[in-house]
Amino acid sequence: MQICVCGWWYFPEYYDALLEAVKRGYHTVVVKHRDGETNGLPFVNKDNIGLEWGAYSYYIDEIWDGESDVLFTQDDVKVKDASFFDWASKITEDVCSIFHNNADARYNGEAHGRMIFMSSRFLLGAQKLGGFWYDKGNHGFIAKGNYRSETPPPGSSHHNAGIHNFLKLVPRVRKQNPDIRKRTFLCSPKIVLGRRGKL
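Given the sequence above, the corresponding structure tokens read:
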């Protein structure tokens, strides 16, 4: 399993945990959307276009080895035990969001871009269909409340457009390969996912 991190908040404890993941054999790269300390992890500077889905799209197009499963994650995260990464690497579904618990999943509509596991065969299928869509007109816009609470700037869609488009991509990938297994979400008490920099 490889790990793609969208760099924005740079929680030091999470980057410590990611270093532990590297020691366990999980190649990790940070796609930085603004300056921040990655604690020695390799990184690529990329303008904040399309929010996390812009980072994830760049990763599979330019960094992914083409054969490993990938854990995609934002970086306002707390990992209570680095064995979490071993657990994630053993997920048997091909695509699955990860949350702390069921309440966390429900709060986020059971789908979000904060942490998602994808198998190599799902990613290969996604690439055949053009890869991950991201909002090229969004240069960092996030509404203060619900994604419908503010009108996006001209040329930009709402801040959840990336995950909404991803959820439409999943059945298209499964249509071309019916063996691909989807699970809406899994939970691990070993992680806490932040929301806009707050745990």
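Strands lie at 2-7, 28-32, 43-45, 70-74, 77-79, 95-99, 115-118, 182-187, 191-193. Try to locate this feature in the token string yourself.
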